[in-house]
Amino acid sequence: MATQQRSDGADASSASSVNGRAIAAILISIAALMFVFSNVGPATLRFLFLQFTMPAWGWFLAVLIAGVVIGSLFPWFRPRKK
User: Fold this and answer.
1) Residue from 25, 29, 1 nearest 13 by CA
2) For the chain, what are the domain ranges?
3) pTM of the predicted protein model
């Protein structure tokens, strides 16, 4: 099966997979943000002898940001560039 070449040299199948990944990332981000901002009640975090209280969306947003940072620091599942 032959792939179509684009004018910039990349084949059409890689362009569609990148667009598919971008769409999936956008949809997951929207769903995560909807979840975060629908939880507006206060939540308490207890760690050892410390106690913090803030809106639940703040905790969810902090965990989401931490996940993005950790995912960018440890790119184990990204394909290696040749």
Assistant:
1) 1
2) 12-73
3) 0.48
